[in-house]
Design a protein that fits this description.
7-stranded mixed β-sheet; globular; Aminopeptidase; 201 residues; alpha+beta; 29% helix
Length: 201
């Protein structure tokens, strides 16, 4: 029987996190982002960035978690990253104070497609919520691609709603629409749905 759990990322996880990110993007975003952009992503570059994020976070409130599936062997199957909301969480033209204090931003929430629908996304999000609560955050925000139905379904199932903000990322001269969702961080644990898995937040 397979068991799943979540733990803080370690420095030696960086390469596997990068592999999961690349594999997931190439499947989940193949109809959203240009093919040549996905094909030219540098796994080594991503690994170096994740190593820095894990080993040298900007603050103690910046978190990187990994999801592990444990059977005969243990496999890293997903990851999540979050930190205090900064300029990257803002919509174009939105003033710096628009989000207010006590807001945390999810920058990544990915589960490799072949390990989907096994509760890993829900466990990652639940673990993040516990940390956010301990850090004193009151609200969370996350951007996702407008065409990313899997992430939209997952976030909606766990109580996230659009907050009215939108933007378009310029990906090699292609404008890709994104929507921002938000959720109040509950004072107590609440169960999250395990029926769907995210591809990106």
């Amino acid at each position: 029987m397979a068991l799943g759990y979540v733990r803080p990322a370690r420095g030696d996880d960086a390469g596997e996190i990068a592999r999961i990110q690349l594999a997931t993007w190439r499947v989940a975003y193949r109809r959203i982002l240009p093919r040549h952009v996905l094909e030219n992503l540098d796994e080594g570059y991503l690994a170096r960035r994740w190593s820095a994020a894990v080993l040298q976070p900007p603050s103690d409130a910046h978190r990187v978690l990994v999801a592990v599936e444990q059977a005969e062997q243990s496999y890293l199957v997903g990851f999540a990253a979050s930190g205090p909301a900064d300029s990257e969480a803002l919509a174009p033209g939105e003033p710096a104070e628009a989000l207010g204090s006590g807001v945390v931003a999810v920058t990544d929430l990915l589960v490799e497609p072949r390990w989907g629908r096994r509760g890993h996304g829900s466990r990652l999000l639940s673990a993040l919520v516990d940390l956010w609560r301990a850090d004193g955050f009151e609200r969370a925000v996350a951007w996702s691609f407008e065409a990313d139905e899997a992430s939209a379904k997952f976030l909606t199932s766990t109580g996230w709603e659009p907050d009215g903000a939108a933007r378009a990322l310029d990906v090699d001269d292609l404008l890709v629409p994104q929507l921002r969702r938000h959720v109040a961080i509950p004072a107590e644990d609440t169960k999250t749905s395990e029926d769907t898995e995210p591809s990106e937040s």
